Amino acid sequence: MSDTVLKDKKDQVPVLSSEDAIFDDIRPCRDDEAPQELAKIAQDESLVTGIVRLRYPKLCKWLGPVLRLFVRRYIHKQLAHIHTIQDFQLQVAKAVESMVNETTDGLTFRGFDELDPNQSYLFISNHRDISLDPAFIDFALHLKTQRTLRIAIGNNLLKMPAATALMRLNKSFIVKRSVASPRERLKEVIHLSQYMGLSLKEGHCIWIAQREGRAKDGDDRTEEAVLKMISMYGRSLKEDFATYMSKLNIVPVSITYEFDPGDLDKARELEAKARNNGVYHKGELEDIKSIVKGIKGYKGRVTIVAGKPITSGFSTPEELAQLIDDFIYQHYELFPSVLIAAHELGLAPDEVMQDITEAEKQKFLERVHAYPAELQERVLKMYAFPYLNQQAVQQGVKRHLDAKQADSGAADTSAANTSTADTSSADPEVSTAEDNAKA
Predict the structure, then answer these.
(1) N or C terminus: which one in the chain shows less Cβ crowding within 10 Å?
(2) Does the pLDDT of residue 438 top 70, yes or no?
(3) Please, what's the b/e burial string for 242-281 (b: 16 or more CB within 10 A of its CB; e: otherwise)?
(4) How far is residue 149's CA from residue 109's CA, in Å, rounded to a whole number?
(5) What is the mean pLDDT of residues 51-57?
(6) What's the CA gap between 312 and 203, in Å, rounded?
(7) Hey, what CATH topology would domain 3-32+84-328+409-436 get?
(8) Given this model, what pLDDT does residue 400 score?
């Protein structure tokens, strides 16, 4: 890429802040914009209808108008006392606490006490749930009286006015995934990288997933494209990859859900891709439904472990990805669901079952056996894969299991394969935009 692409043109004012108007298309909303975002939520009839159908699936057919009126009034009442971003996030914190009490058997945080509340951090975690992954990290910071995160979200989630408003109020910024032109994608990658770099420089904490999309097969894997995207702003500062990335205080985070509320849906998607040469047509509001299911579904125990900032030990995206992955693998909680799945598939020795009770085994297997027979093995594999990755790290195996081994016993990794760069482009730097934009 030519240096002129990364630099501001001479006739333009240099961008020195994440609050610059140039970022209006991707940034979260500000306090003065909160009222208009709250109004979008209050006026979104699709939100009202969705809540009615979700909460009252049988009654909505007969009492739809009455229930919609009730829900509409409830929404207005909940929003009446919210005037700022902090007001909104305090309500979110209460909702998260309630969700933890109702849908988990306990939430454990580790490592967050070691972080400096006055420092900015770039949190990079494995990605299992669309909304809960960053929400739990945000909740940990809230409990430790630290500033909450700016959260990277894909524009695929912005299909409802209310959803867009909710995410902007919760300090989310947009990753534009649907840009078709390689040159436009490159511009968006640089734009996003600059926003993130300036945000961190100003003291904001940021969360971004280690990959595009959730690890539906259970194989948590940091995409180098994500790291390359983040580093683009460093190139404009004439800094090499290692120099720039070492300044960002990258904190790896390992997230474990004992039970995944979306395990069946993920298995169905993997099966559909396997049957259709990797093609899967997502429903219009499928992501929104996945968010709701993740929030309302039973999760068992949940463990969130934050590491120390990675400031050295790498020089390339591959090496940094390996450090992040190793931390995630080593600190992934091997709940009974993981060990039972690995044992059922013949991937773990009998010894792993020694401390697992018959009740725990029955609980997990009853869950799996309630699913369609053709999907049960896929579900087992997605639970088992973290065990295999952790074993690989402990045995000093570089990187991940090879494709042959993964295919024969670990998991079907086809869903983890994403689109590659268009190397036919005449401009080699522009062609890398496809890779970088995957973030």
Answers:
(1) N
(2) no
(3) bebbbbbbbbbbbbbbbbbbbbbbbbbbbbebeeeeeeee
(4) 16
(5) 85
(6) 21
(7) Glycerol-3-phosphate (1)-acyltransferase (3.40.1130)
(8) 46
